[in-house]
Every structure is written in structure tokens, then in C-alpha cells.
Amino acid sequence: MSPTTKKTEILAGISSFLATMYIIIVNPSILSQAGMPFDAVLTATVLLSFFCSLMMGLYAKNPIVVAPGMGMNAFFTFTAVKGMGISYQVALGAVFWAGVFFLFLSIFNLRTYIVKAIPKPLRFAISAGIGLFISLIGFENAHFIVSNPVTLVSIASFHNPIVITFLIGLLLTAVLVVREVKGAIIIGIVITTLLAIPIGRIWGDASAINFGQKTLVNWNGLIASPDFSLLFQLDIIGSFKFALFPIIFAFVFTDMFDSLSTFVGLAEAAYLYDENGEPRNIKQSLLTDAVATLLGGILGTSPGTAYIESAVGIEQGGRRGLTAITAGILFLPFMFLSPLLSVIPSIATAPALILVGVFMMKPITKISWSKMDDAIPAFLALVLIPFSYSITQGIIWGFLSWTIIKVFTGKHKEVSMALWVIDAFAVLSLIIS
């Protein structure tokens, strides 16, 4: 491992924080659509990011920031709560049980067995499919993509100042990202919010997307005491039902492979390997990720996970746990700024969702699209996640189609016993639903 200094680590931690702090705003904006109080979700987001980034730094000794995961918050809101019609308390319970299961797999090193059971093309496709899903949510929140009785969906009218403001914010944020400006996404959110202030005051009417309020940006104050109303609100008993096992499994599956791919990618970028050639302190890092999932259910947010944006701090020279500790500490003051952050409208966070979708599309290049027995299941998983508005459905049909195609083309050896077990649960979940 290359030498580093405390000053370098602290500066790297600041850089990682700037790259990940958008989650403080985006996570509450998504989970509030599940009926959860914005201020309380913000408090839970900050607390989880603070405690688990500290754990990553102190226990796993890795320069990786941990926070509520993008994709998991969308799955929580749009698949679990809105799609299945369960309460957010039950969904939080499912997050808790996913954390318990993930913790069990990590402690007994069963993760390796599970990882080998899932074909890599499906892992890559699911990651990209979640990216598309998140982008779709962003376009929908900005009212750029709207429903259409003839074509199902269509692009909104450009005579709408909300759409124009969103497009300016999206392109501006994209330029900042391309130019590798530190904190590009959060800068884009702030500028788009400022551009949205005249809506409802000078031009246009924001009531269509602002819960009846004619203005899009409304001042609610600067600081307030943290809202702990979601703490211990999870329904542990009500969530431990067979009908909800697919939800728990989807949380575990997505979180585990997201964290594993993050650790592997960051280890490759910074040469953070141990003597066996594995990502450094991988067991401790995965245990931290599991705790972040379990803690999410307790605190009142979607599962926490390692952030690939930590690469920004690593590029600045961060190699040790002090980088993650610094970033974690920087989250804490925002727990008192919920009134200020609640003024940010959905069209300001929409560009962040879309660009996160772009980042998550990278694995798609690793799929061998010329090998059709791999390509077809991967494609089904990729497109069904956004088309069905459900991460679970994309995962289920990806697995089932992979198994069926491999078996009937004489390649049954590519279907592991663990995958057969997963397929059985997939079929049961379809029957139940």
C-alpha cells in the first residue's frame, strides 16, 4: 500500500464526502414518497452514514464511505411499499431481516457460495437495470416523462417552465460531472433549486407536482432539532412472513453484490489488496455493510452500502480508514439542517438520479452480447426492472430465463445447485404474488 499522510487522508475524506453528500437530499426525497417524514428520513440518513462510515474506517480500515444505497431506496419505495402495498414499518422490518441474513452470510463466509451461484452476466445486467430504474424515477419526478393513454408514456410539453428548469439543471450538472468538478452533483442540486425559485412566483404554476402549492421552492427555515420519529418504528414480527421473503432476498442480493462489486472495483483502482490478492479486509468491510443494512431498518431508512463514489477520495490519495472517518464526521452537522434541505424540489434531485443511473450502466459492457444464451437472460433482467417498475421482477425473470435456456440448450452444468434453490424461491414468489 502506497504511503500517505494524515493531511492527505483528511483531504481525501472531504473529497469523498462532497461526492456522496447528495444522498442526504436524495434519499429523503425518495423515501418520503413511501409516506415517511422527510425530516425523519434525513436524520436516519445522516446517522447511518456517520456511524457506518466510522465503522468502515475504524474496524475495516478502508477509505470507503457507507450511506443508504441508491437503488435500494427506490426498491423500498416503489416495489416494497407502493408495489406490494405494505406499510413502510413492515418494509423497514424487511430491511432489518435482510441485515440479519447478510450478517450471517458474512460471519460464516457463505457469501462466496452465494456469489458463485449467480451468473456474472445477470449480476452486470441487474446493476445496469437498477440504474435505468433510478433514471426513470428521476425523469418521472421531474415530470419530463409523463403518462400517456395511447403510448403509455411520453415526453412532457416544453412549454412548461418546470421541464425547462429541469433540463437546464440536468445539462449543467452533466457538464460539471464531465469536467470532474468536486461536488458536481450537489452543486447541480443547489443551482437547479435556485433556478426553480421563480416558478409559481414569476411564471408557471407548480401545483401539479408540489402537493397543491403554487410555488415549487418554499422556505421552511434554516435549522431544527433532529427528528427521531422513525427510530425503532420497524415492524419486526409483521415483516417476517413467507410472502415477504422475496423482498428480503432482493434486499440481501442487491446489497451484497453491490457492495462486493464496489469493494472489488475500489481495490483495483487503489491496489487495496491483501497478501492473498483479495480486496483488503473484505470480511470486515462486508460485516460493516451488513450492519449498515440492519441499522437502516432500526434507524428508519433503506439499507446502507459502500459507495463507489469513494473513488473520488481514493484518487486524492486516501488509502486508510481516516478517509472514511473524516467523511462520516462531515455528515453529522446536516442532521440539524432539515428545514433548509427540505426546500429542494424534486426537479433539483432528478438530475442526480439520472446521472447515478449513468454511473450504474458501466457493467453492461462486460456482458458478452454475442453469446445469446447469456445475452437473452441478461437482457430480460436489464429491461424488466424499469419496464415492470420492479427490481424483484427483473431479478426473478433473469434467473428463471437463465436456468431454462441453459437446461434446454444442453448447458445445465452452468446452473449451480444454489441457483436451483433460488429459482424455487422465485417461482414461489410468483405464485404468491
Strand content: under 5%
Q: State the helix count.
A: 19
The computed structural class is mainly alpha
Radius of gyration (CA) equals: 21 Å
Sequence stretches where pLDDT stays below 50 over 5 or more residues: none
Number of domains: 1
| Order of SSEs | HHHEHHHHEEHHHHHEHHHHHHH
Mean pLDDT: 86
Number of distinct beta strands? 4
Helix percentage range: 55-70%
Shape, please?
globular
Strand arrangement within the widest β-sheet reads 1-4
Protein name: AGZA family xanthine/uracil permease-like MFS transporter
Transmembrane segments: 12-31, 38-60, 86-110, 122-146, 158-178, 185-204, 230-253, 322-341, 376-400, 415-432
Subcellular location: Cell membrane
Family: Belongs to the nucleobase:cation symporter-2 (NCS2) (TC 2.A.40) family. Azg-like subfamily.
Describe, in plain words, how this protein is organized in 3D.
By secondary structure, the protein is mainly alpha-helical. It has one domain. The protein is 63% helix and 3% strand. It contains 19 helices and 4 strands. It has helices at residues 6-20, 23-31, 38-60, 72-84, 88-107, 111-117, 120-141, 161-178, 184-196, 236-239, 245-270, 282-299, 311-315, 321-331, 338-341, 346-360, 372-387, 391-408, 417-432, and strands at residues 66-68, 145-148, 152-155, 304-306. A two-stranded antiparallel sheet has the order 1-4. A hairpin with a 3-residue loop joins strand 2 (145-148) and strand 3 (152-155). The model has no long low-confidence stretch (mean pLDDT 86).
